[in-house]
Amino acid sequence: MWGQYNVGLLIVMISGVIGFVALAIETDDLHRLLLLDLVEITTLGVIALLGTDLAEALVLPGLTVGIAELLALSQIYITKERLKERPVKGLNIEVIQMADAPMIISVFLVVYGLLLSGFTGGGVAGLGLVFYFMSRGYKENLNMLEMASGISWAIWIFAFFVFMFLPQYWFIALMGAAVGIVLKVTVKMSLVGTMWGDHRD
Amino acid sequence: MIRRISHFLCNYENIVPLFAGACAIIFLAGILMLPLSYQQNQLYPKTIDRNSTLDPYDRGGPPFTQVTIHAQYPENSPTAGLVTSYLTPFSFYLAQTTQHLGTTIVAHPGGIIDEILYNTRGLDTVVEPTILLIAFAIASFLYRKVG
Amino acid sequence: MITVTSIGGIPYYILEFGDELVYFTPYTITLFLLALTFTVLVIISRPEKQVDIAFGGDAYRAKDISISEMRFRRFMAIACGLASMGAMVTGDIFNFTLFTAMVGITNVGIVAAVKSPHVQDAAYQYGLVALAATVPLFAGAAVYAAATGSLSMIELMNGTLPTVPLIAKAMLVIGVIGEGMAPFYAAKAEMFRAPGAPYVIMCSLSSLLIFLRVVEVVMLG
After folding, report:
1. Most buried among A14, A121, A175, C57, by the most CB within 10 A?
2. What is the ipTM of this complex?
3. What share of chain C is helix, strand, coil (3-state, %, to 5)?
């Protein structure tokens, strides 16, 4: 009766209990947020214990939802604690600010990310842009990036409807979805990279 | 008594410990209820072919052939299986020349994960970018407002 | 074809999105129409203006609310309405949990847009609960899939699958409670102090709706 599934479930559940008890007795707001991030891992554990390809596909939405909510919550925390008086001005390392290295590394990461496509590719390409903006102190308006985000979302929705109602054109839909998601994740991550420092519109 | 409980709930500082405590109790109850049954007949079962160059993401067929997939309602997705076996020209080249494609294959267009995420369970992936969009809208709105 | 007998009634219409079915039974269609009505109301109605009245005199002043804040909260309220509509009619356990998580985050967004530090603090606490609630939600859905080998509610209705463990149902319910904050109406009074009537009502309505739906979901398997 006690197969691998249940042994794994036991361990994950115990860690879940530990996480939640810690969350219940913690009183500091920032520590609560960090503990929540820890507890989120429990979810991924329970899903992954399914051990099928389906589990792998369900982990991604679970992970994304956790990250998304964490992003919103940390911004609420900054606002509510008024942490704006202490701006961070990029990475103050002379070598990084002056030399061409960040440019080269960023270009490499973006190109590699575009080759990979999909969620992972978006993450890699986004990381490249984050690194670039961090080292250079980005000061332009974000309208274009936000428009790109909107367009990529629309591409993805279009791809979804092609998959559902015109399945014979599956190839277009696959490419649309891959491009849409790579754009979306890249833009979101690079926007996060620009969202620190004292510059804003 | 009820008044005291309602007074306790009124203070929003208390709801996080309360909810976390309730979750801890549920998980504890879950431990006591183990072992749970595990249905052997799962959807999208995972098979690993160690000798394949696409290991561990072997899609079970040459590109541009339709692979059989154990979906919930196969009749609803007539083309399911084509995305699973698709390889981009670049990854096709990598798969033929090296043994290392398996580590990156999950990121290329095509594959079983893309099949599930985009095609058979596409509605999940519609909701999920939308949640990301909402969370991002909240963050950027607050960021700009406190200018 | 798919035949069903369920507590929600026999589906009038099943919309197929691959593995995920969207179905309309008398029960779900009622809830769906309710969510739709309120979303339309949010779109067309004008936000209320709160007025502070000084006691002991005739002085009063209207609270100023910036247009961008109103626009943002309306956008969140509409998104919340769409998410509740989706949660009402979806026929897939995991999809239901995703829509529920979306209701949770839009609720937080509606509240967090208000400038007052007091409201921000409340929004942060609700956000923490909403984030914590995703843990039992998704875990519950995963246990559903492990025990029955299926995530489709239609299959659960048929009764051919193994019974769902009680713990999975309990996790699903506590997750929905956390996302909807349903039992915390007392604490929600803090939210209602935030100006902008049609939008805060959306918070309450959506949590009520997802709670009504989860009752149906846990009684299926």
Report:
1. A121
2. 0.83
3. 65, 10, 25
Other chains touching A, judged by 3 or more CB pairs under 8 Å: B, C
CA distance A136 to A153: 28
Q: Which residues of A touch B108 (CB under 8 A)?
A: 116-118
The model carries a pTM of 0.85
Is residue B87 within 8 A of residue B58, CB to CB? The reply is no
Query: For chain B, how many helices (H) and strands (E)?
Result: 6, 0
Question: Do residues B28 and B60 both lie within one domain?
Answer: no
Residue B23 in any domain: the answer is: yes
Query: Residues of chain B whose pLDDT is less than 70?
Result: 9-10, 52-64, 99-108, 146-147
Q: Answer whether C98's CB lies under 8 Å from B131's CB.
A: yes
Query: A14 at the B interface (CB within 8 A)?
Result: yes
Asked if C82 is an interface residue toward chain A (Cβ–Cβ < 8 A), one would say: no
**Do residues B86 and B141 share a domain?**
yes
pLDDT at A199: 45
Structure confidence at residue C2 as a pLDDT band (50, 70, 90): low
Taking chain A (201 residues) in consecutive chunks of 10 residues, what is each chunk's mean pLDDT? 83 92 88 89 89 84 86 85 63 60 80 70 75 64 68 81 78 78 72 55 38
Indicate yes or no: CB of B139 within 8 angstroms of CB of A156: no
CB contact under 8 A, A57 and B17: no
Q: What are the structural domains, with CATH classification, of chain A?
A: 1-86 (1.10.287), 90-201 (no CATH)
Which residue bears the tokens 């500082």? B13
Contact check, Cβ <8 Å, C138/A33? no
Residue C20: DSSP 8-state: E
C182-209: per-residue pLDDT in tens? Answer: 555 545 555 555 555 667 778 888 888 8
In this structure, the answer to whether residues B62 and B29 fall within a common structural domain is no
For residues B24 and B60, membership in a common domain is answered with no
C207 lies within 8 A of chain B by CB: no
How many angstroms separate the CA of residue A81 from the nearest CA in chain C?
Answer: 9
Q: Does A189 touch chain B (CB under 8 A)?
A: no
Instruction: Classify residue B5 as exposed, middle or buried by CB count within 10 Å of its CB (0-12, 13-18, 19+).
Output: exposed
Residues B115 and B68 in one domain: yes
Q: Which residues does residue C15 pair with via DSSP β-bridges, in sequence order? A: C22
Cβ-defined contact of C128 to A32 (cutoff 8 Å): yes
Q: Please state the domain count of chain B.
A: 2
The pLDDT score that the predictor gives to residue A66 is 87
| B83 has a chain A CB within 8 A of its CB | yes
B115/B55 same-domain check: yes
At residue A22, the pLDDT reads: 92
User: Does residue B42 fall inside a structural domain?
Assistant: no
Contact A160 B118 (CB under 8 A): yes
> Which residues are CB-neighbours of C169 under 8 A, at least 6 positions away?
C140, C218, C221
Q: Which residues are bridge partners to C51 per DSSP?
A: C62
Query: How high is the pLDDT of residue B44?
Result: 80
Regarding whether B145 and B92 lie in a shared domain, the answer is: yes
Best mutation target, B27, B72, B126, to test chain C (most C CBs within 10 A): B72
pLDDT of residue A200: 43
Residues B118 and B62 in one domain: yes
Domain for residue B64, yes or no? yes
Q: What is the span of the domain harbouring residue B18?
A: 2-33
